[in-house]
Amino acid sequence: MARHNETGKKGELLAADYLQQQGFTILHSNWRHQRYEIDIIATRGDILHFIEVKTRQSLSYGLPEESVTHKKIRSIVTAGVAFQYQYPAWKRVQYDVLSIVITGQETPEYLFIEDVYL
């Protein structure tokens, strides 16, 4: 597996643990609709969260959250709409980004950006 794929997989595991510690219930990981994917679908309270996880092991290419483009957000929204169509019980939804930086032996740094809009 390529290093960036390993980093991404590790980040998604860290993200799930972090979100559960923050009171979220994880419903799905890597949920797919056609060519679209949502990294984590979770709930907290009465809100359904569609969460994009970005992980970096170095800041050489910038902060993880900087790699979430408008195009990526639109694809997450497209997948989110498809999810809502299949599971219409959720009235309140939110699109979020969880940025994780893993450097050496240090504790990962998390930045949770809620309610991302275009």
Automatic annotation (TrEMBL):
Annotated GO molecular function terms are: nucleic acid binding
Pfam families per the UniProt record, alphabetical: UPF0102
Q: Which domain of life is it from?
A: Bacteria
The entry sums up its family as follows:
Belongs to the UPF0102 family.
Protein name, as recorded? UPF0102 protein D3H65_14215
